[in-house]
Amino acid sequence: MATADQLATTVNALKSRLGDRVVGPEDPGWDEARRAWNLAVDQHPAAVARPESAEDVVAAVEVARRHGLRVAPQGTGHGAPPRASLERSVLVDTSRMNAVEIDPARRRARLEAGAQWQHVVPSAAEHGLAALSGTAPDVCSTGYALGGGVGWMVRRYGLACNSIRAAEVVTADGRQVRADTDSEPELFWALRGGGGSFGVVTALELELFPVRELYAGVLFWPQERAAEVLGAWHEWAGGVPDEMTSIGRLVNVPPLEEIPEPVRGRSFVMVEAAWLGDEAGGSEQLAALRELGPEMDTFAMIPPTGLGALHMDPPEPVPGAGDGVLLGDFPAEAIDAMVATAGPGTDSPLVSIEVRHLRGAAGRSDPAHGVRDALDASYALYAVGMAMNDAMKQTVVQRLDRLQAALAPWAAGSLLNFAERPLDPAVMFTDDAYRRLREVKSKYDSDNLIQANHEIPPAD
Ligand SMILES: Cc1cc2nc3c(=O)[nH]c(=O)nc-3n(C[C@H](O)[C@H](O)[C@H](O)COP(=O)(O)OP(=O)(O)OC[C@H]3O[C@@H](n4cnc5c(N)ncnc54)[C@H](O)[C@@H]3O)c2cc1C
User: Fold this and answer.
1) What averages of pLDDT result for each successive group of 10 residues across the chain (460 residues)?
2) Which residues contact 124 (CB under 8 A, 6 or more apart)?
3) Euclidean distance between CA atoms 430 and 452, whole angstroms
4) Of the residues 139, 154, 386, which should be mutated to test ligand 1's pocket, given the most ligand atoms within 8 Å of the CB?
């Protein structure tokens, strides 16, 4: 345990290199600086560095190393819940590094590590291009892409980690390197789905895709029809082309004033979907679901910038407790188990249970991919509830446990991005891939300086 004097010395050393881009526990603004997007996570790092350049990141890494502290990179704190204690870590908050450059001819985006999808998506859309963004505009592209990245085009264009074409990284020994297929190829492989254990990423180059518009929206039914609608969706999803990515979902909309009247305080079963094609083709695809007579239907042609509103993620930081698992399948028995555990009449504290359809490009292996090559699962389940205090959090966690137990017969592993509770990362990879990840960690960070939310330890 470092003494208060030792920590104060470290904060001063950081300030001598980074000036006011460092906040220590005694400084004004400390509580704001240490806050994660998920407000249920109470982070207590030794100091917070807010770099504005890769050189600032080098300085933070060098000082932390010299003073025996770890380095914990964070873009927003959407993925903060599973991270271990930060008491002996410098939190490197990359949010000030959010510049985005688009190269339309090469269909590439170069983004600084703190850029969120709301910075990337509009810039790409100006050129008729789209990145493999996720549902929430304020998730940081870097954390999302390092952890896999399941977005609205995942069945057509695959996981976002495999759209990374290069990463600029500050390694644990303070070097600035570029990782791509030619340079530091092992590091490049590990970054594409292995998470944040291997260095501090300062910028990414992502491939962009030619998408001007999609036919996308949400169908809503009263939640009492959950089993019928989800059963029909599962049957339908099994036959759709890769251009269709969809989510079957149970939502208990909180009774908050800022939520529009038609949905406020109500419980729904929904199908959200994005179709990479025109309205006529999308409508033809959706016909079987529309025959079920949805109460609301918001499908329309939208640009990629419209996708950020589709899933209705919270627009501001909130306190939440959630977790996710992959499912091999989601047949009628699984749907019944889910509905019996957290559907209508169960007094469920879960605000949302979503089941994302995978397969297509998400399931196709390619030797050019990184460690998260393909997902051997048909669906990704993620459930979440509000956690304004410990009692609420416990209630949510108990229901998450019950839900996961009910769905255990269909469990098919986990994905870094949706795993919000600490778990052995070995279960997320094949034995070979995990061994190789640990070797990469040893090569680039044998002292285990860099602290990810899901840590890959150096090889023994
Ligand atoms: C509302 C919401 C919606 C979501 N939607 C989706 C979705 O559609 N698809 C999906 O796949 N996931 C989704 N997620 C999960 C999300 O992708 C993960 O939580 C991801 O980790 C968030 O990245 P972040 O950088 O914003 O979070 P952070 O908590 O800041 O980072 C998460 C981890 O990423 C690593 N990391 C971040 N920045 C760096 C860096 N510069 N260098 C090295 N490592 C770094 C660190 O290990 C860090 O602990 C969602 C989560 C929430 C809460």
Assistant:
1) 80 97 97 98 97 98 97 98 96 98 98 98 98 97 98 98 98 98 98 98 98 98 98 98 98 86 91 98 98 97 96 94 98 98 96 98 98 97 97 98 98 96 94 98 98 97
2) 102, 109, 130, 131, 208, 304
3) 20
4) 139
Question: How far is C-alpha 26 from the geometric centre of its chain's CA atoms?
Answer: 32
Alpha carbon distance 61, 349 (integer Å): 41
Ligand 1: which residue has its CA nearest to atom 20?
A: 144
Say how many residues make up the chain. 460
Instruction: Tell me which H or E stretch contains 386.
Output: strand 379-386
Tokens of 25: 């526990």
Strand, helix or coil for residue 358: coil
For residue 322, give the ligand 1 atom closest to its CA. 53
Q: CA nearest 119: which of 85, 96, 152, 87?
A: 96
State whether residue 72 is helix, strand or coil: strand
Report the Cα–Cα distance between both ends of the chain, in Å, rounded.
24
User: In whole angstroms, what is the distance from residue 108 CA to residue 225 CA?
Assistant: 44
- Count of beta carbons in the 10 Å neighbourhood of residue 108: 18
Pair 455, 441: CB distance under 8 Å: no
Helix (H) or strand (E) holding 214: strand 214-222
DSSP label of 283: H
Strands (E), 65-197: 70-74, 89-93, 100-103, 108-112, 129-130, 164-170, 176-179
Ligand 1 centroid from CA 417, angstroms: 6
Instruction: Kindly list the protein residues whose Cβ atom lies closer than 6 A to any atom of ligand 1.
Output: 73-80, 83, 94, 113, 134-136, 139-140, 142-144, 146-151, 195-196, 200-201, 313, 417, 452-453
